[in-house]
UniProtKB/TrEMBL annotation:
<keyword id="KW-0347">Helicase</keyword>
<dbReference type="InterPro" id="IPR014001">
    <property type="entry name" value="Helicase_ATP-bd"/>
</dbReference>
<dbReference type="InterPro" id="IPR001650">
    <property type="entry name" value="Helicase_C-like"/>
</dbReference>
<dbReference type="Pfam" id="PF12419">
    <property type="entry name" value="DUF3670"/>
</dbReference>
<feature type="domain" description="Helicase C-terminal">
    <location>
        <begin position="738"/>
        <end position="903"/>
    </location>
</feature>
<keyword id="KW-0547">Nucleotide-binding</keyword>
<dbReference type="InterPro" id="IPR038718">
    <property type="entry name" value="SNF2-like_sf"/>
</dbReference>
<keyword id="KW-0378">Hydrolase</keyword>
<keyword id="KW-0067">ATP-binding</keyword>
<dbReference type="InterPro" id="IPR049730">
    <property type="entry name" value="SNF2/RAD54-like_C"/>
</dbReference>
<feature type="domain" description="Helicase ATP-binding">
    <location>
        <begin position="447"/>
        <end position="611"/>
    </location>
</feature>
<dbReference type="InterPro" id="IPR027417">
    <property type="entry name" value="P-loop_NTPase"/>
</dbReference>
<dbReference type="InterPro" id="IPR022138">
    <property type="entry name" value="DUF3670"/>
</dbReference>
<dbReference type="GO" id="GO:0004386">
    <property type="term" value="F:helicase activity"/>
</dbReference>
<dbReference type="Pfam" id="PF00176">
    <property type="entry name" value="SNF2-rel_dom"/>
</dbReference>
<dbReference type="GO" id="GO:0016787">
    <property type="term" value="F:hydrolase activity"/>
</dbReference>
<dbReference type="InterPro" id="IPR000330">
    <property type="entry name" value="SNF2_N"/>
</dbReference>
């Protein structure tokens, strides 16, 4: 038992991996992997720094921690009944390292070995090993951020932290030691001095003028005299936080006389340091009011264009600037004078105010830029100011810069906001399908945003056809004969889907797939693009990240991220790398732009329109904290208004879409074989084909049927074919893209509050799905088989219909008839049945009388295998005669050459 454990408590066993961040996985006593939302609250239960886990970052089933967070969390007192232990020896070593780092932070000798160079924190090599020093550096950075300080301020607090620690001075028993700033007297000089007060009182005591030169012990009132040595020490430590004050070790109370410039220097530098460590600072009330002064800019924005129809985002706009200071109007001349004189304190009306000269300079720079650079509406939208898209701010809003748009500009902005009356773009003639009306709107929006220079997120619900809208867009772009191809980055599990959909709907597009161990890299990759001149390059997130150097060297005609939630975690190397890729137009496709945290939305927008949602720290302050911590409706509405122009979101529940959608959509989900599956597949086919030449007709039929079953199980997962025992989901999923895709899709459906059925012919496949969904998503998924008693079967059906569980796995034969499962909106066929009627009967468990919702049917097919070839044959045969295909028996009648062609792996 380690130091983080308590007797009699529940134990979570942590697997810890460290790269740029710490990735933590938790397992229970049974070895099952537990989702972070279950166990992380016990880790964050006393952690105020993260708002008790409110800002926790996850990536799938991994909890992500910075080194500083890791040290902080594992040095605190453990939860009273939950304990954490390492799953492996190396995991225990990480936990012990956290304790060693925590001890070092409380070691006064540390601070004698800390220095700053070019803004970087350095720890002398003589202090601890490299691992400890790295942790300490990150932790010091974190402590500074928590106090609102920067590394450049570290030298001014080293002495204080060495002797008082990061939490500051312990409260004294019966007094408060403060620093007092007193406004100028007739001499024009300010007084800055040490003062005391009782804990319950508000009046400050300081030595009289005639006793200022006496030592602390003699001048103190009797009630505090016993604390004289402590007061002297505390005064010295407090003054060490003031860069304006030379190191003070005197035994007198500190007093200094300052000019205005010295006071301003104190307010700019020293006051923040004192307040960061909880030191009481008393300044005149009017000076406090001065610190709260507000400069505001309003601009009436107009367009020279007389007609709204000719106004575009590139239309130059005019500004009529208005200024105010603490509610008092200023002319442009007054504003210019303020900036030019660089004054800090000025009198406005009957009050003194302090203005931020740096802010004034930034405002003038913005105004000069807008006037001199001929700002367009596009420039204004992307300028880093709040509420710029609001015609009139709400009464409680008080924006720094406020824009009022005239009617013609407002009309154009409404097109972005409502996605209505967009310019019509003719569909490409070589698009081999028809678009539904809402899909045509999506196509027009994609083209409009490209022409206006804006990235976008197409966030239509699953099944509404994001892929075909994007393919139509790619055909439109290709007609313009771009110099570089378009790039599509997608998860490995849907790479085959993209290949097939592009081939089906846009056969004229030349597509290159950048994937696999034999792919060209570096200069060879660039040379292949120059030689082959593809219109579209397909790649995966993993490959794009590992081959980032060559991909970053190209400015692509467009870059599309499919399942863009794959870059949701801004801190991962993959996300940071892909967000740096350069394209003339950036597009994100995702049905779930926000899965858990607003930071995921920021990450996607950082890709499509970098800088539009500010830097992450400002986004956290403006949106994440008020929304995720305080549930602020005002902040939610402000964020909705800000992202609306660049996010197109349609759901199956939209009434206007229901009229245009079929009641059932059937979709093939293509998945490639893994290298392991492909090798086993080819070996099995070669062995069987050799045997067929030596067998009689009856024997050959038996061999073909036996081989069919083996191939189908192999397409599902190699462990079914090899008859291996079950292992963990982490080990199972990488061996089968089909299994990974089904589990991921089912998990996403459940997380959206929908329900799905998964049909499979094989008991083993059902158990693999059960195990993976339980481990990865925490769902107890029932599996209905032919051996299940009727009362248990009926109870499961009723529970599913009542919404008691979201995912239901069924054996195709046992669950294919006689059941009413209309609560499901998705049907997933994990493996194909050679008789379409059987599949349709299974689908009709959800798509039947009583079903009031749109049903999405997903049929999983492995590329280049018998599954894909049979699917093509079934389509042909069904059009000839439904009676022709009754079972798999028809395949035994094929010739040896036909069978060989049918079985051969051709990807």
């Amino acid at each position: 038992m380690n130091q983080f454990q308590t007797e009699g408590s529940r134990t979570y066993y942590l697997k810890i991996d460290q790269s740029d961040v710490f990735r933590l996985q938790a397992y229970n006593d049974s070895g099952n992997r537990i989702p972070p939302e279950v166990w992380s609250p016990f880790l964050f239960f006393a952690d105020k720094d993260s708002f008790f886990g409110m800002n926790v970052q996850t990536d799938g089933l991994d909890l992500l921690l910075t080194p500083a967070d890791f040290v902080r969390l594992f040095q605190q007192e453990p939860h009273h009944y939950v304990q954490f232990s390492g799953r492996r020896l190396e995991d225990d070593a990480w936990l012990k390292l956290a304790a060693r780092v925590a001890d070092s932070l409380n070691d006064s000798a540390l601070w004698q070995n800390v220095s700053i160079m070019d803004g970087q924190i350095l720890i002398d090599e003589a202090y601890g090993d490299a691992e400890i020093r790295s942790f300490l550096t990150d932790t010091i950075h974190h402590q500074l951020r928590q106090k609102g300080l920067t590394s450049t301020q570290l030298p001014y607090i080293l002495h204080f932290v060495e002797h008082a620690g990061w939490d500051g001075l312990e409260p004294a028993d019966d007094y408060v030691l403060a620093m007092q700033l007193i406004e100028p007297d007739d001499s024009g000089l300010w007084i800055f001095r040490t003062a005391l007060r009782t804990k319950r009182g508000s009046a400050y005591w300081t030595p009289s003028k005639r006793r200022e030169n006496e030592v602390i012990e003699k001048v103190l009132p009797e009630k505090w005299r016993m604390h004289s040595a402590q007061i002297q020490t505390r005064q010295s430590l407090i003054l060490s936080l003031c860069p304006s004050v030379d190191r003070y070790e005197d035994d007198h109370f500190y007093i200094a006389h300052w000019t205005d410039a010295e006071v301003l220097n104190f307010l700019r530098n020293d006051a923040d340091l004192l307040q960061a460590f909880g030191i009481e600072v008393s300044i005149p009330s009017w000076l406090q009011a001065v610190q709260e002064s507000k400069v505001r800019v309003k601009a009436n924005v107009t367009s020279p264009a007389k007609k709204a129809s000719v106004v575009g985002l590139d239309q130059i706009i005019n500004f009529d600037w208005k200024f105010s200071l603490n509610g008092h109007d200023l002319s442009m001349q007054d504003f210019e004078q303020l900036v030019t004189e660089n004054r800090e304190f000025i009198r406005v009306g009957n009050e003194w105010v302090r203005v931020d000269s740096n802010l004034l300079m930034q405002l003038r720079q913005m105004i000069d830029e807008a006037e001199d650079a001929d700002w367009t509406l596009k420039d204004m939208l992307f300028h880093n100011v709040p509420d710029i898209m609001l015609e009139e701010p709400a009464d409680e809003d008080d924006p720094l810069v406020e824009f009022h748009l005239n009617k013609s500009l407002k009309v154009l902005l409404d097109k972005l906001l409502d996605k209505r009356d967009l310019p019509e773009t003719p569909l490409p003639d070589n698009l081999k399908t028809e678009l539904r009306p809402y899909q045509k709107t999506g196509f027009d929006y994609l083209v409009f945003m490209r022409e206006e220079g804006f990235g976008l997120c197409l966030a239509d619900d699953m099944g509404l056809g994001k892929t075909v809208q994007l393919i139509a867009y790619l055909l439109h772009v290709q007609r313009q004969q771009p110099e570089q191809p378009s790039l599509i980055i997608c998860p490995t599990s849907v790479l085959g889907n993209w290949q097939k959909e592009l081939e089906r709907f846009a056969p004229d597009l030349k597509v290159a797939t950048h994937y696999g161990g034999n792919r060209p890299k570096g200069q060879a990759f660039l040379d292949s693009l120059a030689t082959e001149r593809p219109d579209v390059v397909l790649s995966t997130y993993g490959i794009a990240s590992s081959d980032s150097e060559e991909i970053q060297s190209i400015t692509w005609t467009s870059i599309t991220l499919d399942e863009a939630q794959n870059i949701k975690n801004m801190y991962t190397k993959q996300s940071r790398t892909i967000r740096k890729f350069k394209g003339q137009h950036h597009i994100a496709l995702t049905g779930t732009p926000i899965e858990n945290r607003l930071s995921e939305l920021w990450s996607i927008f950082d890709f499509i329109n970098k800088g539009y949602l500010y830097r992450i720290k400002q986004f956290q302050e403006a949106f994440m904290v008020p929304i995720e911590r305080d549930d602020s409706e005002a902040a939610k509405e402000k964020l909705r208004q800000r992202i609306q122009p660049f996010l197109l979101r349609r759901t199956k529940k939209d009434p206007e879409l229901q009229l245009n959608l079929p009641e059932k959509l059937e979709q093939l989900e293509y998945c490639p074989l893994t290298p392991e599956q492909a090798a086993l597949y080819e070996g099995l086919v070669q062995d069987t084909v050799q045997k067929m030449g030596t067998l009689t007709g009856f024997e050959k039929k038996g061999l073909v049927l036996k081989m069919l079953s083996k191939l189908k199980q192999l397409c599902n997962h190699p462990s079914l074919y090899l008859k291996e025992p079950y292992t963990t989901a982490d080990e199972l999923l990488p061996r089968s893209q089909k299994l990974e895709r089904i589990v991921t899709l089912a998990g996403e459906i459940a997380e959206r509050g929908e329900q799905c059925l998964i049909f499979t012919q094989y008991i083993g496949m059902g158990h693999l799905l059960q195990q993976a969904l339980n481990e990865l998503y925490g769902h107890e998924v029932p599996f209905l088989t032919g051996n299940m008693p009727k009362h248990q079967r009926d109870a499961l059906v009723a529970a599913f219909q009542n919404g008691e569980f979201p995912i239901f796995i069924l054996s195709l034969k046992a669950g294919g008839t006689g059941l009413n499962l209309t609560a499901a909106t998705h049907v997933l066929h994990a493996d194909r049945w050679w008789n379409p009627a059987v599949e349709n009967q299974a689908t009709d468990r959800a798509y039947r009388i009583g079903q009031t919702q749109f049903v999405h049917v997903h049929k999983f097919v492995t590329i280049g295998t018998i599954e894909e070839k049979i699917d093509a044959l079934l389509t042909q045969k069904q059009s000839m005669s439904d009676q022709f295909i009754q079972s798999s028996q028809w395949m035994t009648e094929l010739s040896d050459e036909e069978l060989k062609d049918l079985f051969t792996y051709s990807f």
